[in-house]
Amino acid sequence: MSARRIFTSAGRFFHFQLQMEMGIIQSPSLLFANYFHSSTSMHVPKDAKSQRFLRSKFKDIDDALASFNHIILMRPLPSIVQFCRFLSALVGMKQYHTVISLCRTIESLGISHSVYSLSILINCFCRLHLVNFGFSILGKFIKFGLEPNTVTFTTLINGLCIDGKINGAVDFFNDMVTGGYQPNVHTYNVIVNALCKGNTAY
User: Fold this and answer.
1) Which residue range forms the structural domain that includes residue 75?
2) Where would I find the PPR repeats (predicted)?
3) Which of 2, 108, 145, 146 is the most exposed place for a label (fewest CB within 10 A)?
């Protein structure tokens, strides 16, 4: 079964709440991932800001933003893999609003999205208790010809658990399995922990 069943199920489940929140928060710009392929080579001057960006090691958020603003002026631009590594570092610093904002800039630069960049954005919405917007990003996977993976779905399941929507998390987990996606250890841990901590009919 294709991913479209998952998308349809998620859309039905959250359509009403999403419509309510859309009146408060503007439609999210497109844009967790711990899995990256090795970066492609990039010809940039070996100055400190560029090197910190490429290594995604920063003193603080101001240092990270300075490196970002510096690197987007370089040509060629970094690959989406390198931007994902940078965004993931900001997630590690709990700068979720910043990641969402910077994703708009990355998109405006014409950088093509990947499963990882979209998964990072989903994770940020979930961490901000905006799981409905996380689900809205699933539609972008179809638009860009991408297919989410287990990490993407586990992130959404965790977002539901963070919001205390345990029944919804279990339902979505079942849809994920029915759709042919194989849960990993982290997926099971998220579900088990949620069931142990929450009161649910399951």
Assistant:
1) 26-129
2) 149-183
3) 145
